[in-house]
Amino acid sequence: MEQGMTRFKWLPIAVAAAVALSNPFMLVAMGATLGLIFFCCDNRITYRRIAGLAMLPLLGLVLWLEPLLSFFALTASFIGVWTLRKNFFSSVTSNALVGCLIAAVLTAGVVLETSPAVWNQIEANALATQQRWQKLAVKEDQTDSEQKELWNKWNRLAVKIIPGHFVLMMIASFFISIILYRRYGKSRLPLSLGCSQFDQYRFEDNWVWLVIIGLVLALLFSANETALRVAINILFVMGMLYIIRGLAVMFYFIAKRQGGILMRVLLVALCLTPMVMFHLVFGLLDTWMDFRRNVPATR
């Protein structure tokens, strides 16, 4: 039993290491976020020193990674940890989202002022990768012009939501860092470190206004390429977050009715199908209907 508990204790580190090593961006994001949390919030001076020293090799990795993406990851990490430390929000998602939004605006400013070619290269690499995976996954009929046009539209959409992908990876990195800190850290400050059970997951209801802004931009300014890109990325990121919130609501009702793990697996599998729209609807409706009234309003 003790051996099993020991394995479970190291499980968060193993998961974090596997994710970080498979994704250089998330390695930088998690390293910066976790290091800053320990450096700014832990009450053990030895751990704060270790976190400070660990940031040095991270800077070397930042120089190796794409500078633009590193700038976004470091900025989002710094702002997210700062808002966490100041307790501006009572949910981890809001701290991460604010960090990502401010970092995205600053990164966009850098792109417009100094390095538009760098971002164009990132998009070109992403398009090439998308087309390569497409050829491996599907046998394309060169004579079918409709299928070819459909794939081209899909590839262009995938390129447009690249910023949203990096925002979601940054939020995931923030959550993994929080889980690790909750497990191994000892805070000297009263921090809001989120929920310990998935069926309690939620975030501030005011974020629904960001969804409304995205819809307005998409409907009224669709002729403007920049506004449309902003709208698509806002709806993509917030849509994913509300899908997760809707899944948490469903898990809550399953636990309340003492449902089994098979039902949970089925609900997760449905996220890969068009039925995921039900998860999204549940997540959005939870803003007004508050399905889990016994769960704190912000987690």
Strand residues, percent: under 5%
| Structural class designation | mainly alpha
How far is the first residue's CA from the last residue's CA?
31 Å
Low-confidence segments: 1-8
- Tell me the series of helices and strands, N- to C-terminal: HHHHHHHHHHHH
> Sheet with the most strands?
none
Give the strand tally.
Answer: 0
Instruction: Characterize the overall form.
Output: globular
Q: What is the average of the pLDDT values?
A: 81
Could you please describe the fold and organization of this structure?
There is one protein chain. The protein is mostly helical and 299 residues long. It has 2 domains: 1-111 and 165-194; 197-299, no CATH class. The protein is built from 12 helices and no strands. Helix 1 runs antiparallel to helix 8 (162-184), helix 4 packs antiparallel against helix 5 and helix 5 (92-113) crosses helix 8 (162-184). It is globular and about 65 Å long. The relative contact order is 0.10.
Summed up:
By secondary structure, the chain is mainly alpha-helical. It has helices spanning 2-22, 24-41, 45-64, 67-86, 92-113, 116-137, 145-160, 162-184, 208-220, 225-256, 261-269, 276-289. The chain has two domains: 1-111 and 165-194; 197-299, no CATH class.
How would the blueprint of this fold be written?
Elements: H1 2-22, H2 24-41, H3 45-64, H4 67-86, H5 92-113, H6 116-137, H7 145-160, H8 162-184, H9 208-220, H10 225-256, H11 261-269, H12 276-289
Helix pairs in contact: 1-2, 1-8, 2-3, 2-4, 2-8, 4-5, 5-6, 5-8, 6-7, 8-10, 9-10, 10-11, 10-12
